[in-house]
Amino acid sequence: MQISTNRYYDRTNAQLSSLQATVDKLQTQISTGKKLIAPSDDAVGYQRLQGLNRGTADDAAWASNITLSQTLLQQSDTALGSISDRLQRVQELAIQATNGTLSAGDRQIIAGEVRAVLDDLIGLANTKDVRGQPLFGAATGDTAVTRDAAGNVTFTGVGDPAEIPIGDGVGIQPTQAAARVFDGIPTATGTTDVFALLNNFAAALESGGPVSTDVLDSLNSAVTQVASVRGVVGARSARLDLEASRLQDGELARATDRSSIEDTDVTAALIELQKTSTVLQATQASFAKFSQLSLFDYLR
Q1: Measured over all CA atoms, what is the biggest interatomic distance in the chain, rounded to whole angstroms?
Q2: Could you give phi then psi for residue 102, rounded to 5 degrees?
Q3: What DSSP string runs through 121-175?
């Protein structure tokens, strides 16, 4: 009988411990709002949750790069807009300059404004981005363009700007190299860059010589080229908006999955807590009553 009594105590103690542990666990789940406290609670669910968390961390990094790219593209668009405005002003000046009745003084005034625009364009070409790097810089070089003592402007570095990764194996070029903005402008004798075009235009005015109408055609081509580059920038911005939306949708889906794995169904947990507490109390009461029986005392 001693063995049977010990077994009874052991079984009852184990049952009470198990019930109390369940009560404690349910209370924790209700108070924290999380049903998955430790890996042992749901090994498969815990592994799924770790995968969801890694996906969130990865997408947070991509989202940061997308935000940076959007900022750079917006900065590029603003700068390109300013470049376009200045070139259009030179177009107006070129139309004035083709007027054969201009005095020498008028031509000098126009030349001075053209050179002022040239200075502005060089400054815009060397705009620094939010990272402190050349906005229109090539793959190499610390600046986009340089001007020597004689006033000649050259493009610094070669290659397209580096892409910024915005997804797994996906990147985007946040701007264009200065050569793609300012170089390759067609003329009557070949191609040139905007800086040389304006410099030659100003020099012709200063010398008192005739201003060819070819200048107008080249300026029109320059404005068209800048508009084309601006269009590319706009298309890339639209693509980034789609990528950002995709990341948001992915995170919403993960949030739903995460909630189904780890969040407590409070109503169900409260019902289960009540049931378990009732069983625990009944078991405790039954054990206490049974242990007080005289026959039980005798058997011990």
Answers
A1: 134
A2: -65, 140
A3: HHHHHT-B-TTSSBTT--SS-SSSEEE-TT--EEE-S-SPPPPEEEETTEEE--S
Cα-trace Rg, the chain: 38
For residue 81, how many other CB atoms are within 10 A of its CB?
13
Give the amino acid at 99. Answer: N
Of the CA atoms within 13 Å of residue 208, those in its CB half-sphere come to 3
Q: Are 199 and 118 in contact (CB under 8 A)?
A: yes
> Each residue of 124-172: pLDDT tens digit?
999 999 999 999 999 887 899 999 998 899 999 888 888 999 988 889 9
Predicted TM-score (pTM) above 0.70: yes
Helix H or strand E encompassing 113: helix 104-125
3-state helix, strand, coil split of the chain in percent (to 5) is 70, 10, 20
